[in-house]
Records
---
Amino acid sequence: HRGLRYALYDIHTDRTSRANLALMGELLVAIRERQLLLHYQPKLNLASGRVEGVEALVRWRHPARGMVPPGDFIPNVENTDLISPLSRWVVEEAIGQLA
């Protein structure tokens, strides 16, 4: 039959999707309410042993969940429109801290 489609419902996938959607909504609030912070990781030149730069790593101080590791939200953000405001926040925050 043309146009006949089916989909399997998986309660685990549904719960995960709902949790991720809720977390993304909370991340918008986190950006506005300054719940995010940056940690800096030095980038070393292995040949010289000198620090040649730093990488800014975002952390989320969630009011109810405590520190949310980046692995719990960054992969989801990368596939949504939230990547732009988050990236903008990281750049502006890092520049502000350098000033």
Note: The helical segments are 11-32, 74-77, 83-98.
---
Amino acid sequence: CTREATEDTLSLVRLLLEHHANPNAVCNGRTLPSLAITLGNERLVDLLINHETTDPSTSLGLGNGNVLCTILSTVQESRWTYAKRLELVCKESIKKNLLNLYFICILN
């Protein structure tokens, strides 16, 4: 996962997802969506957040919360505009679990 998503990167991630790779697998307190958010990789974030198997409520463990916590983190202010962060929060996959995601965020 790099800062910029090339077409090759996106094609590889699509291929992995088509073959049932788990975007919710946690490694070192990160999932692929949370890592892509942290790196500011907008095209990859859009691909992952919109994928049917991505679960933004997956706990990242280690007091890291979940994908919503990553999006809302003040650390992301330098990588994402306010409008883009709001757009990510308003994605259907996140909106449907927003209250639960928020409580996980504040409890971590």
Note: The chain has one domain: 7-107.
---
Amino acid sequence: MACKSIARTTIALGILAGSHGHVVAHDLSSVSAQHAGSDASLPVGDGRVSTDAPQTGYVYSCTSDFRTGGARHYGEWLRQGRWFPDEKVVVSGEKSWPEAYFEMVADKSSITVKMNSLPTNHPTGTFPIARSDPAYQYDTNPNPIAAQALELMIPAQPSFASEPGCLRRGMIGFTVNGVALYNALDDAGLDAAAHEVQDACAGHPSGRGQYHYHAGAPCIPGIKENAIIGWAIDGFPIMGLSGGEGQAFTNSDLDECHGHAQQIAIDGRNYSYAYRVTAEYPYTLGCYKGTILRGTNRQIREGLNTRRIRGAAGGNRERQPRDQRRRD
């Protein structure tokens, strides 16, 4: 699946002026087709969930009530506590989205984001997953991709919260190609990137049809670079895998929220902190470092399709045993 420009992206925020944080040497030469920055194998993140307090390398989750969703069967790419991204099957198809749009416009205090959660720069796989698709034996995602109608505000000058905030289900940020970013967990509270079958750009739809990523996806512009690849809804930027000289970050380089102090200048605005994408779980955010504007989560809820798609995950489906999980 080629990454190509097919729709509209507007970011009225200027250009990254440059920033350099502390990095240590890690090889960034291997990038798989489905998981940006992956090595031959990665540790599965199952069980690395905290509901009491944030921890480095964990998802600080707002809920401990996980469903029986997720992938239908364990894939052969999962063995001995590790997963092998290059062996993982992907959902077939190349569906283009010419109606995709993504806009960011900043004023002094806030940034207004308008998006429909369709990727502006790449096609997606075909969802629902067809029975004839080899991916179906592992993951029966019945959800079609549907355009959303999101308009939300994030801080233009984000501030640090008095204590880190937990991550809810659903959208915790967005990428520069207009795709929603979810946390690293599937509906069963397991490592979504390891277990769930996604398309070649590491995306898939939720029960409301929102196309999203759970990790650093190979089709995100700048994903392998020291560049902004998205924003968390607390207003802090999310940076790519590289520290600027072909070196990738790992969990040991980052704090409990999966970020670090870094000076970034954009259009006269100065950021002092950024989240980082890593090849290893939890991939993007571990918790929120900043304060979310009042009303942002409501704006997200109001912008999603009002009904779950019939037969979609968490909708009109029976609860399944652990080896037949569905997804978020």
Note: The chain has one domain: 1-13+26-311.
---
Amino acid sequence: MLSLTRGAMTVHSPASRHPLGVGLKWLGSPVALRASRIHLRLHARATSSSAVETAGSSSLGKKKERRFVATLDPGRLRSEDLLNLSGLSQPRICFPCKDAPSSASPYDTARLAYRYISGSLSIVPFPADTQGFLYFHQSPHSHPAAGEVRFRVVRPEDSSLPTREAFSRGSDLTLDHRHNLWGVHLTVVLRKYPVIWRKLISDGIIPPSRAAELEGLVPKHLRGRSRVLDSITDPFILGLAMETTKPCVLILRSEGLFQSRLHLNLGRPPRGRVISGIG
């Protein structure tokens, strides 16, 4: 059915309606008709883009899922600080930032890795059942740089217990050997993880005087993936399947830090004469 109005003609028919439900009105001018069509196309694109953006935002949010930790002090941990890192390669850990401006995020974010594959940049994900608490382990050694951030794994059946009891019943996360603990040494935290370093200071775990001493003590450029020992007498595990035969070792001592490479001659014939006998 057609109904005529002054200066315009409106088409009332099912075919005259746009799929988006917008009625087409011909204002008696080709220019107006083209403008109406352009408006409809822009509306359709905006609707489509909005749907894609919403879907993308949810997908992006899932990829950037963050986990929150209020403290690294084992004596002040809460049930809300419990983390599940199972199967994750580089999880984002968020710490409250007291000095953040009102316009910025109130959290600082750090990313942790379980282990790097020797000779490459590939990351081994955290193993299954890696659920527990991130905390700072105070070393029994008196050196100001001694200590490391560890992960205390809590058994699933203990997760409902009070935090301190669940923590005490748990065990520290290990690498490929039960005596080889996962951890981020304090010297590495200082130079590689500024967010965690600031958190240790704000928690009072590292007093300002100790922080100032470490700033002048630890080299600004540590050799990549160094093995750090709190004492030269500390035992450590060295994998023999390494790509390099010169692993870097950093040892804490009273005068400061000693950093060097171990030269391993595994499977190579000794040089020079070999003398055997009883002397």
Note: The chain has two domains: 2-62, 65-223.
